[in-house]
Design brief:
Elements lengths: L3 E4 L5 H13 L4 E4 L4 E5 L4 H10 L9 E3 L14 H10 L4 E6 L14 E5 L4 H10 L3 E5 L21 E4 L9 E6 L2 E6 L18
Parallel strand pairs: 1-8, 2-8, 4-6, 5-9
Antiparallel strand pairs: 2-3, 3-7, 4-7, 5-6, 9-10
Helix pairs in contact: 1-4
Length: about 210
Amino acid sequence: MSAVRLVLGDQPETELIARVADALLGGGVALLPAEGVYGFHALPSSAAAIERIRVLKRGAGRAGFIGLIGRPEDLARWTSPPSEATALVRAHWPGALTLVLDALPSAPAGLRAVDGTVALRCPGSSFLRGVAVAVGDIVLSTSANRSGEPPAARVGDAPPGIADLEVDAGSLGGRPSTLVRVGTKGVQILRQGAVRLGDGSLDGPPSEP
């Protein structure tokens, strides 16, 4: 069955958020515009949806899953952030910065890597934040591409047959979020992306969504 396709901006954002939340709560996979690229999204309780994505992402370690949260303060539900992480959150969230942190036992098993960490982001998109708030849970997200292939900058670039619902926001910028590990070794930049970090990054202004 073909995925239901909705267009961002064709209806009030609250209605679109409700449609996406219903699809996720029903155990589906949603293709949504993320930070510069499209991603597949599912709830941690939806084992069949997660497995559908995992099959596509074989060989990608933690399967590339990032946990999307609706509010910066929700970070404390899933991890105990060190002071460096708190400073980054204040400077760059909501925004295109993903933090890799040591997980609390409350973190979903499907999100935790073998080293006990989770990757979390409070996205710059009010739409994505609204979805996370509407489902009342963390939302698992991963780029909509097969392992080793470029990320999808358009809905049509995503592999077919995975999503039950698609939200089309046109052509995106193609830059994923910046990925940072914060732990006992301090702040380590794993991937430079939409938020440019470097000397003095902890004091930088919030990034643009």
